[in-house]
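#lab-general

N.A. 3:47 PM
ok so I finally got the sequence cleaned up, no stray characters, all 312 residues accounted for. can someone with queue access submit it? mine expired

B.Y. 3:52 PM
send it over

N.A. 3:53 PM
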Amino acid sequence: ITEREDKNGTLRHPYVDENIRLLKGEKSMYSHIYGVDEYLWSKLQLAADTPLDAEKFKSGDYVIVSSFWDNGDGRYYDVGDKVKIDFGGGESKEYTVLAVGDIPYAVGPQHGHMLDIYFTLPADEYLRQVGKTNPLTTSFDVEESCVDQAEAWLKDYCENTEPNLSYLSRAIFVEEFKKTQMTFSVVGGLLSLILGLIGILNFINAVVTSILARRREFAILQSVGMSGRQLKKMLIAEGLCYAVITVIFGLGFGSVISYLAVKLISAGMWFFVYRFTFLPLLLCLAVLLFFAAAVPITAYRILAKQSIVERL
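B.Y. 4:20 PM
back already:
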């Protein structure tokens, strides 16, 4: 499927055009019908105000219908509405909407469409209407102590017994997540390193320029009795003042900006959980304090190679 431009130059997607045509012309939209075993009923993702009545659902006269948003907003149908489902082959049946929600992403097709609706029925009712079918997915809850053993069996079964089958497990998702996490860490780390080097170079430039510009002032102070040790302490104290101001802005404005920016990125990825940490800031603080002391000392040593008279 490719995008194309309309007469106004706006990119249009054929899939969107087809959905709009169905909605306006035929008053219909693409739908998916699922049958779920009782084992999964407690795991269905339902809107908070539409709890599942297991007895009614078991009767086969009720259906769970999805909404546009996962939290239940943007509902196509509300509880109590009647909906007629066409199963194909001339088979159809009218159901009463029991709840608003959907099956968990992990046990579904794991893909979505721009505009569609999901109907969820009990497995027995689904099979009565469509006949015998192969399951889309089969899910397992495994005891923590048997996870490795179960995964080894599934891997062997899918590779040797039924090569046409594939499986997903927690370990696979964790491994994929680690790769995604590593990508963010590498890109973010390189970006932070570049910005950190720029910051350190600016700091060195500011401190060294300040010391060189004030070498006559320092020479006058030393000529009236200030010792080299006292001058060195003064320069280190000034460098530490720069560092403290940087830390205040970093912990204040920097943390707020970092929190909001990263929170905004992670909010669009449901598999991310954002945890704010001060560890990177503390590591940067250690580096900053080192340069705040080392740069003035180095600059002073270069400055001290000239006598007081030469500097005056």
